[in-house]
């Protein structure tokens, strides 16, 4: 859809979400749980402890969307455009429509720069922001996530943000699997919350090339929640749904 419109975020936050038209994530088991994919107008939060795989999962989804011909904008203050493209080349043997992918690796990312970039694009189907905590501090994060949700509603596209989880509560528990109360952002604005999880993260043993992992769909405003067993491919830095 075109984005050359006046962005009125105050009105957009109250718009009803269009939960009918979805964009498949390219991970079949995840799409099944999400009733087909990420709904237009929705906000998805991918959160985990640092090094667990949230950025890799988010980029995998962005690559899948691009491979399907969708126009994707990736905002990242953590990774350079070159390193992101290297990850894509490692994960995808053939992506015929790289020209539909826009990567903005500006270091000083802001809500203003995001709005400016999105407004300048003729077409945008999905937005990925990695990561939210480089965009806002604790004092502004509520307003920031609210604005991002409003942007998703206004443009009627899925927006994905990544977020870290603090170790304070998670690593004191016997079961290290995250739960919604571990989020450091207001959960009320998220339509979908996904926690990538690998138990081996807490082990001192060397990880296998393809190791067992989970995608924990902790919140899904449009369908079921639950745990999706997957495998984590360390070489390709992506989720697989089959073993070796």
Task: Give a verbal description of the structure.
By secondary structure, the protein is an alpha/beta fold. The model has no long low-confidence stretch (mean pLDDT 86). The longest helix has 15 residues, at 141-155. The protein is globular and about 45 Å long. It has 7 helices and 11 strands. Helix content is 26%, strand content 24%. The protein has one domain: Rossmann fold (3-Layer(aba) Sandwich), CATH 3.40.50.300. The strands form 2 sheets. Strands 5-4-6-7-3-8-9-10-11 form a 9-stranded mixed beta sheet, sandwiched between helices. A two-stranded antiparallel sheet has the order 1-2.
Number of helices: 7
Q: Quote the distance from N terminus to C terminus.
A: 40 Å
Proportion of residues in β-strands: 15-25%
Bin the helical content.
25-40%
The average pLDDT is 86
Tell me the radius of gyration: 17 Å
CATH hierarchy, class: Alpha Beta
The name CATH uses for the topology is Rossmann fold
